[in-house]
Design brief:
Elements lengths: L1 H14 L1 E2 L20 E7 L2 E3 L3 E12 L11 E10 L4 E13 L2 E16 L19 E2 L4 E2 L10 E18 L2 E15 L3 H5 L5 E2 L4 E2 L11 H7 L10 E14 L10 E11 L2 E2 L12 E15 L3 E15 L40 E18 L2 E18 L5 H17 L34 E12 L3 E10 L10 E6 L4
Antiparallel strand pairs: 1-2, 2-4, 3-4, 3-23, 4-5, 5-6, 6-7, 7-10, 8-9, 10-11, 11-14, 12-13, 14-15, 14-16, 15-17, 17-18, 18-19, 19-20, 20-21, 21-22, 22-23
């Protein structure tokens, strides 16, 4: 790990370039940090790892303009561009601009992103009310049979295909001192479908009916996943099953007393805002049913408490997102609204950007709340040339709960499930014969009488871990986080690692 960090820091130093004219004597701020001036930019490989998305490869560039450095470590202009793909078929194509100076006294953020995702996570509705079984999608061999264990269904059992287009513009102005008004508009486009099994299997992964065995990680096209079952049983309405386009308007208030945005060591950031979203049919471009126009409310509070100068900081975040009018389609409830687009992903809840150690999108409901707590410690600080670095540790605790569950038509689900079982049983045996559904208790938490168990809906989802941080010039932060969920229903794995840029909040 030490060698890896040294190599990373060397790469950062090598690729970082100064377009500004060199000063004979570089100024320092009140904390002894060398003040950056002029243009600073770097081109780096976009290399990362996510427990849910796999290894990431691509390229990125981050361009900062500091002017004369009087506002350092704040930048005047920031332009970020990235193109990357992961080993689990998740793509990132993004351009982002951020400035508080382009429009005097107003912060402006522009973002354009395309995210193709061949295997987007879907674990059902209402958190623990939906049962998770890792053996359904985790490949294991039976030594006695040299084949797949009987519980295995498909690598795509908890997946669906999702392409996301995002265009956003946000602006912020000052009301009084640290109190700001903010507004935003944009559009979210979702293309939803079943996973492309042929593409995911590839040429080497085939099923041999003679031996009733699968090649490693192969998937049977006749095995329906959780998403397909939800559509078939009417839990996901046909009008939202394939996605849609959603223009939105956002208005809110912000309080920001942080000493800096990228690596704050003191201050408070809080926002409260409303988001009105319309809905258009993805295929025909017509406005969908009025029920899919909806209004959501978000509240977010972050507090950074200095424990020892800027070396040790206690940081925490609490937030909530809830529908207050209309109906949001299921796929939009996987999106955590934000005032300013700074990260490529805003999944909620579960995963690297909300609840580390808990599977991505594990908590899917109409409303939810979350909390993150970190103790950020700068263990080592040093300079190489004109670049300032630090190495830090950050133990953390993450928590999420449901505040607005989906109201399920339980009688309708049972009737649709019974019909599904009957049709699969009576169908003529063939290569394309549908695989009968699993027992209902493998999809939903049931009580001893076979009724839906509501007792676990509001139970908290919790995880904890520790992060290793390597930062350059207070703006470029490499994070290596390890986390583990408290409940195996949230993630049965203990080795959940996330390598990414920046702090979670």
């Amino acid at each position: 790990m030490k060698r890896t960090i040294i190599l990373i820091l060397t790469a950062l130093l090598t690729l970082s370039m100064q377009a500004a004219k060199k000063e004979k004597v570089q100024q320092v701020d009140s904390l002894g940090r060398k003040i950056k001036t002029g243009w600073n930019f770097g081109v780096l490989p976009s290399v990362a790892f996510d427990a849910d998305l796999g290894f990431q490869g691509g390229a990125l560039t981050n361009i900062y303009y500091y002017g004369d450095g009087s506002q350092y470590p704040e930048y005047i202009h920031s332009l970020y561009a990235e193109a990357a793909y992961t080993t689990k078929n998740y793509g990132i194509f993004r351009v982002n601009y951020d400035s508080k100076y382009l429009i005097p006294k107003h912060r402006l953020t522009l973002d354009a992103t395309y995210q193709p995702d061949a295997m987007c996570d879907f674990y059902g509705f209402n958190g623990y009310q939906s049962v998770y079984n890792q053996d359904f999608h985790k490949w294991k061999k039976d030594p006695a049979k040299m084949g797949v264990l009987e519980d295995y269904q498909s690598r795509a059992f908890y997946k669906y295909k999702r392409d996301l287009f995002r265009f956003a513009a946000d602006i912020e102005g000052t009301i009084w001192k640290d109190i700001k008004w903010n507004a935003g508009l944009g559009v979210l486009g979702y293309m939803i479908d079943e996973c492309d099994i042929d593409m995911l299997n590839g040429k080497k992964n085939v099923y041999d009916p003679a031996t009733d065995r699968y090649a490693q990680k192969a998937m049977d096209k006749n095995v329906e996943g959780m998403y397909e079952k939800y559509v078939k049983w009417g839990i996901i309405d046909k009008n939202e099953a394939l996605g849609g386009w959603h223009p939105y308007l956002r208005l809110g208030l912000t309080y920001d007393s942080r000493d800096q945005r990228t690596c704050p060591t003191k201050g408070i950031y809080a926002d409260a805002f409303f988001t009105y979203t319309a809905a258009f049919n993805a295929k025909y471009g017509q406005q969908a049913a009025a029920g899919y126009n909806h209004l959501q409310f978000n509240f977010n509070f972050r507090h950074y408490v200095p424990i020892y100068r800027d070396r040790v900081t206690f940081a925490y975040r609490i937030g909530t997102q809830n529908n207050i009018a209309g109906k949001s389609p299921f796929y939009m409830n996987t999106y955590l609204n934000t005032l300013f687009i700074q990260r490529v992903m805003y999944e909620g809840l579960g995963g690297a950007n909300s609840l580390r150690g808990i599977m991505r999108n594990r908590i899917l409901a109409n409303g939810f709340a979350y909390a993150n707590v970190e103790l950020r410690c700068k263990v080592v600080t040093f300079d190489i040339g004109r670049q300032h670095f630090y190495i830090g540790l950050a133990p953390f605790f993450d928590l999420g709960i449901i505040t607005q569950p989906y109201e399920l038509d339980e009688a309708g689900i049972k009737a649709a499930y019974a019909k599904d079982v009957l049709e699969a049983t009576l169908s003529t045996p063939s290569e394309d014969r549908p695989v009968p559904p699993l027992p209902l208790g493998d999809y939903f938490a049931l009580d001893k009488d076979g009724n839906f168990d509501h007792s676990r809906v509001y139970m908290p989802h919790m995880a904890a871990g520790v992060g290793l941080k390597a930062a350059m010039n207070e703006n470029f932060v490499l994070s290596v986080d390890w986390a583990m969920a408290f409940d195996k229903q949230d993630n049965a794995k203990w080795a959940n690692f996330y390598i990414k840029m920046g702090y979670l909040f």
